[in-house]
Design brief:
Layout lengths: L1 E6 L3 H8 L9 E3 L7 E8 L4 H11 L5 E5 L4 E3 L3 E7 L2 H14 L17 E7 L18 E5 L1 E8 L6 E9 L6
Antiparallel strand pairs: 1-3, 1-9, 2-7, 4-6, 4-8, 5-6, 6-7, 9-10
Helix pairs in contact: 2-3
C-alpha cells in the first residue's frame, strides 16, 4: 500500500485556503479540500504498516503538541507546485523521519526525496507535466495567516485514481508530551 505520514489542517485553515481564487490555468491541476494536508514524510509502497505505526508511537507520542502557522501568502516550488507554507513542524518532522528510519520500511520508489530538508506546506496545485507552469502570478496572494496546534500525526494510505488521490487514515498517533 502507498503510505505517507501527514498532519491535517483544522476547519479554519481549510476555509482560508478555500477562499483563494483558483482560476483555470492551462496545465495546472488544483487540489481539493479533502486532499489538503501537510506531508511529514512520504514512504511509498509498504507491505505492512504495523512497524511504522509502532515506530511513530515510540518517536512521536513523547512530543508535546506544537504550534504551527499557515501562510500568510502562497509559495511555490519552481514551476511545478503552488502551495501554502506551514511553519512550526520541523521538530515533529524530524521525529517522524527518525520513526520511518527505525521502521526501515521506505520503499525503493521513494528515491532520494527522503534526503531533502523538510518544508512544511499544503499543496494547492500541481503542474500536469514536468515542464511546469508559470506560477509567478500567484506570488504574494494572501492565504492566512492561520495558527493552530498540532497534537497528532496520521499514517495515511493513498489511493490513486483518475479523479485525483483519495486518502484513508490507517492510524493516528497523538502527541502526549509529558504525559507519555
Amino acid at each position: 500500500m502507498r503510505l505517507f505520514v501527514a498532519v491535517w489542517p483544522p476547519a479554519e485553515a481549510v476555509d482560508a485556503v478555500a477562499k483563494v481564487d483558483r482560476p483555470a490555468v492551462d496545465g495546472l491541476r488544483w487540489t481539493t479540500p479533502d486532499q489538503w494536508h501537510v506531508t511529514m514524510r512520504f514512504l511509498g509502497n509498504v507491505d505492512d504498516p504495523a512497524p511504522v505505526v509502532a515506530s511513530l508511537r515510540d518517536r512521536v507520542r513523547p512530543l508535546a503538541p506544537v504550534g504551527v502557522r499557515m501562510g500568510p501568502s502562497l509559495g511555490r516550488f519552481g514551476r511545478r507546485v503552488l502551495h501554502v507554507p506551514v511553519s512550526g513542524l520541523e521538530s515533529a518532522a524530524a521525529a517522524v523521519a527518525a520513526a520511518v528510519t527505525d521502521a526501515a520500511v521506505v520503499s525503493p520508489d521513494v528515491g532520494r526525496d527522503d534526503d531533502r530538508p523538510f518544508h512544511g506546506h499544503l499543496t494547492l496545485a500541481r503542474a500536469r507535466d514536468r515542464g511546469g507552469v508559470d506560477l509567478r502570478p500567484f506570488d504574494g496572494v494572501v492565504c492566512g495567516p492561520v495558527d493552530w496546534t498540532v497534537d497528532e500525526v496520521t499514517l495515511v494510505r493513498s489511493h490513486l485514481g483518475r479523479g485525483g488521490a483519495r486518502y484513508e487514515i490507517v492510524d493516528a498517533v497523538r502527541m502526549a508530551g509529558s504525559e507519555a
